[in-house]
Amino acid sequence: MSVAKKEYKRITTKSLVEMKSNGEKISMLTSYDFSMAKIVDGAGIDVILVGDSASNVMAGHETTLPITLDQMIYHAASVVRAVERALVVVDLPFGSYQSDPKEALRSAIRIMKESGGHAVKLEGGKEIKDSVKRILNAGIPVMGHLGLTPQSIYKFGTYTVRAKEEAEAEKLKTDALMLEKAGCFALVLEKVPAKLAKEVAESLTIPVIGIGAGNGVDGQVLVVHDMIGMTHEFNPRFLRRYLDLYHEMTKAFEQYRDDVKSGNFPSDEEQY
Ligand code: KIV
């Protein structure tokens, strides 16, 4: 049974702001392909993020940097074809918006036109302010992303918790306010202290969606392959696994292998 406070036929950026003011938490998961997105959407998840984490979980890269705009559009279009209710947010990949606002707008337009996604997400604060504003001016909804920003991994050097020190926490608070003022409809906070994330969520009217940011925010996001246990070697403290698919799938594949080798598959009923 759903614990939603209000039924939404279709989630929009406005629905998310309404959820925050009604005290309803927002559920968000990643998806990168049609079949997964169909299940995630059918389960009533509010927001589907076509994250650049596809670079890690779909393509096997070590970081999110290599994924291209064309590849993000391919993943996003596959997700959009499956979705009936969720809001689909698509990451602008590394290299598609950092150089200047015009390029950022061109990339965002390509995502909206070629994938049918409903909004874009960009990593960063004041450094990307002009790009965020230009995209918003074109009528494209923008979700911000602060805290651990994986596209800057080579600047920071590690994936550890961000904004533990006063100066970084202050910058994060200023950036969050700037993104709200610029017109972003929501903000992701990744891997920051729970107390700081709660403070930011309480200071903004737009929803703050956390990953490794505690329970004082307005919603939660996880990478779907992590929460269903397909990626069994990634074990951060913030991750709750709802399934152990790595082991379940391994058992199924081993059983299939044995059934084929022994001649047990297909049976008389499984042939024409
Ligand atoms: O790419 C992604 O999956 C993300 C989430 C971790 C928020 O940005």
From TrEMBL:
Pathway(s) this gene product operates in, as recorded in its UniProt entry: Cofactor biosynthesis; (R)-pantothenate biosynthesis; (R)-pantoate from 3-methyl-2-oxobutanoate: step 1/2
SUPFAM superfamilies: Phosphoenolpyruvate/pyruvate domain
UniProt-annotated catalytic positions: E190
Catalytic activity: (6R)-5,10-methylene-5,6,7,8-tetrahydrofolate + 3-methyl-2-oxobutanoate + H2O = 2-dehydropantoate + (6S)-5,6,7,8-tetrahydrofolate
Protein's recorded name: 3-methyl-2-oxobutanoate hydroxymethyltransferase
tRNA processing among keywords: no
Binding site for Mg(2+): D52, D91, E123
Enzyme Commission number(s) from the entry: 2.1.2.11
Binding residue positions for 3-methyl-2-oxobutanoate: D52, S53, D91, K121
Source domain of life: Bacteria
Primary localization class, coarse: cytoplasm
GO molecular function: 3-methyl-2-oxobutanoate hydroxymethyltransferase activity; magnesium ion binding; methyltransferase activity
GO biological process: methylation; pantothenate biosynthetic process
Subcellular localization(s) per the UniProt record: Cytoplasm
Biological function: Catalyzes the reversible reaction in which hydroxymethyl group from 5,10-methylenetetrahydrofolate is transferred onto alpha-ketoisovalerate to form ketopantoate.
NCBIfam families: panB, PRK00311.1
Key words of the record: Cytoplasm, Magnesium, Metal-binding, Methyltransferase, Pantothenate biosynthesis, Transferase
Gene: panB
Cofactor note: Binds 1 Mg(2+) ion per subunit.
Any one annotated GO CC term: cytoplasm
Quaternary structure (record): Homodecamer; pentamer of dimers.
Cofactor dependency: Mg(2+)
Family: Belongs to the PanB family.
Keyword GTP-binding tagged: no
